[in-house]
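User: I'm putting together a teaching handout on how multi-component assemblies are represented. Below are the sequence lines for each component of a complex, exactly as they appear in our records. Could you produce the 3D structure of the whole assembly as structure tokens, so the students can see both representations side by side? Please keep the chain order the same as the input.
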Amino acid sequence: MAYGFGGKVLFLDRSDINTDEIIPARYLTEISKEALAPYLLEDLKLEGFDPKRDLEGVKVIVTRENFGCGSSREHAVWALEVNGITTVIAAGFARIFRQNMFNCGLLAITLAPELIDDLFREFSAGEALATIDLAKSEVTIRGGEKEKTVPFELGPFERTLVEAGGWVEYADAHY
Amino acid sequence: MGKTVAEKIFDAHLVEEPYEGVHVLSLDRVFCHEITTPIAINDLVARGKDRVFDPARIKAVIDHVTPAKDSKTAIQGKILREWSRRHGIEFFDIGRNGVCHALFPERGFVRPGFTVIMGDSHTCTHGAFGAFAAGVGTTDLEVGILKGVCAFKRPRTIKVEITGRLKPGVFAKDVILSIIHRLGVNGATDRIIEFAGPVVEDFSMESRMTLCNMAVEAGATSGICYPDMVTVEYLWPFIEDEYPNKEAALEDFGRWRPDEDAEYEEVIVHDVSDLEPLVTYGYKPDLVKPVREMEGTRVDQVYIGSCTNGRIEDLRIAAQILKGKKIADHVRGIVSPASPGAYAQAFKEGLLEIFMEAGFCVTNPTCGACLGMSNGVLAPGEVCASTTNRNFNGRMGKGGMVHLMSPATAAATAIAGYITNSPLFREG
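Assistant: Of course. Below is the structure of the complete assembly, with chains in the same order as your input.
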């Protein structure tokens, strides 16, 4: 089943946020996705960031280069998913993490670093909301009086996975 | 137009190209461990798809936490163990288990030209054999188990030609750290790195595995070395029934070398003649300095092991430096031979005795400390000199700092109690 995308935005102003920071290995002994929920971004090294406070109600993360580098642990994606975060917008993703997102039917949007800069400059100071139009491949961010719409690219395979809600059922039916 | 190694492997394994540039490949090997596989198993069972595409091509091991440290890890092991039995999958349990990327090569499970996936990012290690081996998440693993396929983007390849001559005391670990420093942690994202050139040709399979192991730390999907006589010699006990002689195996493996006119996205000539032993600082594997610039940094723990540097070659080098020496009073030394073979060989050669007399604790083969799951977790504020592959914030334990280095540097650091060059290193 496909997810709805968009909602409250959290800005994480750092590159190379790794999978150990997204979900530390000490929680990889869990065998259900739900059990990961309290630990998302627990070890994130980012001044002023408090996961308990800042993750409240968040649906969309905007961040910089190489998000999700490191481990193949899909737990990192699940920890987002069970917290209701279904979209990450970044200047770049690590390959395995990005694939894991689409495999789970979540949305990883890659934007040019300059566009990410713009989003940070215009919206990161206050409350921001993202609306995502999958059909048009556009993301709109609103915050205060400002609004900005930017197009993104989604390959047909990725679109298929997002629309199918993941890779397992698709693959079992096709191969 | 000629082809790279990955292009040849992709062509030979192509099931379908459902969309331009997306290649669904058939898999020769699906490897499993107890951290990322049990959830895949549970999900397959819940979906009513408790099937496997081919039990002979799937191998399973408990390696991240072994022996089990608590009920949760015991349950992970139990799920993997029972699933393996249920489907007739070869399974490596306590007593026969080791770090996946050391154990599986030791058992001869990978061949040139193979496609390999595992729910572990350092699966790229197996590229040392001229295979396409990639780490994947649990969903890809699940589909791999179920259908024997995995989707990858059309490969783009960076060729890194490693030229020159290594100084004494400079090793594969230093070479790969220098390459990651040069490329950056995302410099090879969505790319495959072919490691070529005279330095690689001179490397043992162990050193090639160290090189390929850390390809993912530059973001690469995989690293690949070209199969040659070194590959044949390593695999010979497992393939001697398949070929009349080693030359025939070499000729066959030659299919998995790139064409002369293969097209690369980039060719980097990386001369290592002036390279000196390196060490990481900070929390990213591309933050690399010469050891001498970190000289004197006090450490609390020294860890020798992991899928990067826990093989027999690594243990021999460390033991050579530790022989007849004691590690510093304030240092906790831990050595984890990465596989049963490495453990047994180190025992036979008297290396374990050298480690123990020097003051090291010798553990069973496990990934434990590398990712802070067991057998050597750091306390906040503690510093570890480590032969592992990641120095992420909190990697070996919340608030800990990890400095990555070669086994030689780690051994010398253990004796000194602070980061220092090994006596094997000689300038000029």
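A couple of points students might notice: The CA atoms of residues 43 and 142 of chain B lie 8 Å apart. Residues 280-419 of chain B form a domain with the Aconitase; domain 3 fold (CATH 3.30.499.10).
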